[in-house]
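Residues and backbone
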Amino acid sequence: MKRFQVTEYELYSDFFSVNARPVTVVLLADLHNCIYGKKNRRLLGAIEKVRPDFVLCAGDMLVGKKGRSMKPAVDFMTAVAKKFPVYYGNGNHEYRIRTEPQKYGSMYQEYEETLTRAGVHFLMNDKAIVPAGNTYVSIYGYELEGAYYRKFNELELTKRQLCARLGEADRNRFSILIAHNPVYGDTYAEWGADLTVSGHLHGGIIRIPGVGGIISPQARLFPKYDGGMYEIGGRHLAVSRGLGGHTVNIRIFNRPELVVIKLCPPFQGSKEERSRRKRHTVRRLLHRRSMPRE
């Protein structure tokens, strides 16, 4: 029996007014057409339960292979967008079908147009200013080029490259960056993202308790940012372990997860209390996952 868990984090920032209610964000990543119950109703139910202010999608909701159905991803994202604002950054699967029309035809165009009509906001090297409680946040979507996803690659990503696509990070608002590949988390923080949300690594496939994930899709052992919430120079990187799998569909000590992030005003308690509050909590939801028929 396959299940997913809900992982919850709290982040505190001076960008949010004291006494303001927390802003609740749901992070989706790497569904890869997986289905939890008929029409993904168990996954949808978990999202509805937390009533997010908005939903961030860090990519790879479908499987970018010729002849594969997009219907599970389309149906799920359409259902989410009917209830909540959704901001979508492409992963390597979306990038692949978008940039290789000679192989995939109009697959990406149909996918994006269908979801856009449903209300999904695609952020392809773009920015949106979004209501968040009694303030606004800036949400950016960065689409990394395909070369950065190849096995054994040692390409560097610089702050200058991000600025060339996105401009300077907005320092007048809390800035969120959707960037599918967390390997470059240090660069995202250097660019100025207060919070970066990522996926891609599937939690390192096999996790060793106390050590972390073993291998990345690029065949790198013990990836640095494999899953969890990381603090990098006072900024944060949230890496989802993903909701599904595809080529290497194995998970050991590595349950699929739905991530919930609460953006909170500065905590007014003692350092000890703040330390306790910063620890994330995990709720395991006993929801069966079934694979779609194709």
Q: What stands out?
A: Confidence is low (pLDDT under 50) at residues 279-294. The helical segments are 41-50, 71-83, 92-99, 101-104, 107-118, 159-166, 185-191, 271-278.
